[in-house]
Amino acid sequence: PEGSRLVDVQKCVRTGDIDEVGDPTHLTFFEMLGNWSLGDYFKEGAIKMSFEFMTSPVTEGGLGIDPKNLAVTCFEGDENAPRDEEAAGIWAALGMPKERIAFLPKEDNWWGPAGLTGPCGPDTEMFHWTGEGAAPETYDPKDKRWVEIWNDVFMQYNKNEDGSFTPLAQQNVDTGMGLERVTCILQGKK
């Protein structure tokens, strides 16, 4: 593609977590809505767009999700990359309470690389409360009633053959929103 801002719909067949198919949130096939920044906006732009799209009224082109039903996760950091305080700070500036921002390890909040080497980086994931009654004040990542609906991946590093990570010259964003999950939430369905 020749653009720096792209939108797509990815048709996905579930493979890595095939054993979870059949629970309330995992299907064999799903569609992932995505938007991409290729060297254009980065963390602040992506998070602000995500929040605005989720919470703006339908009459203004948003999904109309009540922010009181949202929580987020960010990368907790490790020996290869620091804790993503930048992403957490952006969420906080948008009004996300600190009790609704959790920091999780690489297995939960890191994407890639697609192979043994290549572009990769931290992500921030957005969760919607699907339980009965009001959402708890504090987000518990182990509570399955919080359902992930979207993630923003920040392609910030390159994983090298020796296992080290170096910053990328061009930082990119890849987001993914699960169409079926969001549709269920918007319709109040399980």
- The structural class is alpha+beta
Helix % is 10-25%
Low-confidence stretches: none
Number of helices: 3
Instruction: Specify the overall morphology.
Output: globular
Order of helices and strands: EEHEHEEEEEH
Largest sheet composition: 8 strands, mixed
Estimated share of beta-strand residues: 35-45%
Radius of gyration: 16 Å
Q: Could you give the distance between the termini?
A: 37 Å
Number of strands: 8
Mean pLDDT: 94
Give a short synopsis of this structure.
The chain has 190 residues and is α+β, with helices and mostly antiparallel strands. It contains three helices and eight strands; from the N terminus they run ββαβαβββββα. Strands 1, 2, 3, 4, 5, 6, 7 and 8 form an eight-stranded mixed sheet that branches.
List the helices and strands and how they pair.
Layout: E1 5-13, E2 29-38, H1 43-55, E3 70-75, H2 85-93, E4 101-104, E5 110-111, E6 118-129, E7 146-159, E8 165-178, H3 179-187
Describe this structure in words.
This protein is an alpha+beta fold and 190 residues long. 16% of the residues lie in helices and 37% in strands. The longest helix is centred in the first third of the chain and has 13 residues. The radius of gyration is 16 Å and the shape is globular. The chain is built from 3 helices and 8 strands.
Keywords:
190 residues; alpha+beta; eight-stranded mixed sheet; 3 helices; 8 strands; 37% strand; globular
